[in-house]
Amino acid sequence: MRFLAKLPEQRAAWALLAATAFGLFATALYMQYEMGLEPCVKCIYQRFAILMIGVAAILPLIAPKLGLVRLVGFAGWLTAAIWGFLIANEHVMTQQSANAFFAVCDTFPNFPKWLALHRWFPEVFSATGLCGDISWQFAGLSMPEWMRIIFASYAGVGIIVLFSRLLKFRSI
């Protein structure tokens, strides 16, 4: 328990979080541009959530000893992981829908006007695929099913580390 409670104060832990998230982001781009898989709107939202997990880890990576910085990192990490899980879960439900009418999604991402990523970086955040299509599988699971597992893992690890930290201070 002490090991988990001390992790947020270590640069290596935040570096690992950032590296895994940016690695998944790079994998998404590889799958899009090298494997020819076209991302749908829900894929783009999941891609953004993964990117935000990596970005959330940058500040605590720089200053892991500052409590406020760690708090911001945890808040960003858990918010992005939970939001990503919800989007991935919705995506799985869309793909598994018995009625093809419900297997559609928006044509364009609905980012706020102040964060129009699909216009600023269309190579990365433009949706060209359909949400109901299953164009890739590994071990019998589609990409959204894997992303659901990945986001749940990110959220689970974040919650466990955060509660370990809180319990450590409670026992002092």
Give the key terms.
172 residues; mainly alpha; two-stranded antiparallel ribbon; 7 helices; 2 strands; elongated
Describe this structure as you would to a colleague.
This protein has 172 residues and is mostly helical. The protein contains 7 helices and 2 strands, in the order ααααααββα. It is 67% helix and 2% strand. A two-stranded antiparallel ribbon has the order 1-2. 28% of the residues are buried.
Quick take:
By secondary structure, the protein is an all-alpha fold. The chain has helices at 2-6, 11-33, 41-62, 67-95, 117-120, 122-125, 143-170; strands at residues 137-138, 141-142.
Q: Tell me, briefly, the overall form.
A: elongated
Radius of gyration: 17 Å
% residues in beta strands:
under 5%
Taking strands numbered 1, 2, ... along the chain, how are they ordered across the largest sheet? 1-2
The succession of helices and strands, N to C, reads: HHHHHHEEH
User: Helix content range of the residues, please?
Assistant: 55-70%
Class of secondary structure makeup: mainly alpha
Strands, count: 2
Poorly predicted runs of 5 or more residues: none
CA-CA gap between termini: 14 Å
Biggest pleated sheet: 2 strands, antiparallel
